[in-house]
Amino acid sequence: MPPRATVVGMAEGGIVERVRELRPLIRRNALRAERERRVPDEVVAALAGTGVYRMNVPARYGGHRTPLRTQVDAFAEIAAECASTAWVTLGHAGVSYIASLFPDEAQDDFFTGPSGPDVRIGGTLVPGATAVPYDGGYRVDGPSAFATGCHHAQWHLLTAAVVPAGGRPRQGPPEAVWVAVPMSELEILDDWDVTGLAGTGSNTVVARDIPVPAHRVLPVGPMLDGQSLSKTNADDPFYRMPVLLLFCAWAASAALGAGRAATAEFGERIHRRGITYTFHQRQHEATVTHLQAAEAQLRVSAAELVVARLVGEIETKARDGGTYTPLERARIRAESGYAARLCKEAVDLVAAASGASSLQRDVPMQRIVRDIQALCLHSFVNPATNLEIYGRVLSGVDPGTPFL
After folding, report:
1. How far apart are the first and last CA of the chain?
2. Residue 170: which pLDDT band, with cuts at 50, 70 and 90?
3. What does the alpha-carbon distance between residue 332 and residue 335 come to, in Å, rounded to a whole number?
4. Mean pLDDT, residues 187-200
């Protein structure tokens, strides 16, 4: 199959710069995204023009196979204006990586459709649906919660528990599979009404007895162990990076963007306001402000160093064909959560010093606070959970989770 042509005038390089040019558009639409509980269509379309959705798509389809460091930088640029938009974008771009581990026939389904390599694929890892063997594939039925970006996705990778035909019980925990279903065949429930990351449109989607052919199925367990069903991508080092560790890096990028946004917003506000009921006519002249600004900036800088280290390790091992020990996997997951915690601490610090006027809906600070709180509640990013997992491995006991 000949590779698809890329968008006219758009090469692989410069994705971060093109995303950065869209920051004013993303910022103008951040409040709208929150109110409408989904990213506005024009923002999604504009991001497609940057090539961000192609970053993990195989080159034979016109994808870029973009270095992880570049991906992290691009997502952080988006998050600096709207964490919801960043979370949706990294979700679609990241799930395309998983789609590239599916059998090659399924990849043809994904990447040669009307949207080509700019296709947006959503997915969730927590199984809520069931998959019953049927005619060489499965019939899938049930919900998939937290389907981020479902309104703009063309496909959804729905995690389902395999239920044997005839209702005979299976010994042990059920097998989990990812099944790829066109979004047009799923129902979207209007159940996303939250206080943080409200613009992500992470509604529940529901499959109602949908037949899925065998080539659009990927077992979750082997995938987590680094096994791919793609023959074409099997020997490509880019597609040997562990999916869960990639999501650690991608999630951390959203935290970095939020932390940078809060410190930048604070740096602007302190020149426009005083400290009420004190003699300080300008907040930036107060000694307490100097301490707050420095402390917050150093926490974000420390998070940047942590993220740079884990990204570097993932890329180096992919290039050199290295393997991971359980300790290394647990540490990278813990570092992702720790970076998110550092950014949240920075946000909380400057938000607490921003005055009551920062509670206005049109002031970004209050939204940044709620968004990073929501991010740190995510099960895979939660700082306390990740520290516990790492501590368990450091202490010589089982990590207590297969998600490493």
Report:
1. 35
2. low
3. 5
4. 98
Q: pLDDT tens across 242-254, in order?
A: 999 999 999 999 9
The full set of domains in the chain, from first to last, is 15-118 (1.10.540.10), 121-219 (2.40.110.10), 241-394 (1.20.140.10)
Measure the CA–CA gap between 30 and 40, rounded to whole angstroms. 9
Largest Cα span, the chain = 77
Instruction: Tell me which residue has tokens 């919900």.
Output: 143
| Separation CA 163–CA 176 (nearest Å) | 10
In DSSP terms, 162 is beta-bridged to 131
